[in-house]
Amino acid sequence: WSPDPRGVLIPGEFRLRPSLRKVLPRFEIRVDTAFQEVVSACADPGRDGRWITEDIAHAYLQLHALGWAHSIEAWADGELVGGLYGVAIGGLFAGESMFHRRRDASKAALAALVALLSTDADPRRIIDVQWRTEHLGRLGARELPRPDYLAALRVALTAPAVDFR
User: Which residue has the higher pLDDT, 58 or 47?
Assistant: First the structure.
């Protein structure tokens, strides 16, 4: 499935709003410590628009075991309260889904992902968010027509992989 136009977030274009910056200290960010729990939370049957089936979840667990899929997790008071997961290839992070159980937790996880992808300031990196929602647009996501997306993807894949450890 490939929407046209495609939603992307260029790490250098991420807008860390003052209100989000203020709440970031409320969360402990972890990487890949609860991958299965993040996928399960994203696949919760009670969520509107749920699309993550058991087969999809299993496939991502296999990708995680192989080192391709990663989770960025927001924790508070020892509890997983938000996060996101996706696949990293070179300078591309293809975000699959995110969830929150506490306000701003998924945004905190996204901010942490942006920071992780920005450590070397490589301008080739992109976060594929599939489609630009109003929520993601406020954070800096934009739409790229298919030819522009494919060109950006080719460039992103040439960037060195990020170490998610």
Answer: 58
Q: Is it the case that residue 48 has pLDDT exceeding 90?
A: no
Q: How far is CA 25 from CA 101, 112, 135, in A?
A: 17, 12, 21
Q: Is the pLDDT of residue 38 over 90?
A: yes
d(CA 115, CA 113): 5
**What six digits make up the tokens of 25?**
């200290």
- The pTM for the full model equals 0.94
Q: Which helix (H) or strand (E) holds 28?
A: strand 28-31
CA separation for the pair 136, 20 (Å, rounded): 13
Tokens matching residue 119:
């450590």
β-pair partners for 93: 88, 127
Residue with tokens 């008071």: 77
- Residue 107 CB contacts under 8 Å (≥ 6 apart), including other chains: 20, 100, 139
Q: Pull the structure tokens for residue 67.
A: 């080192």
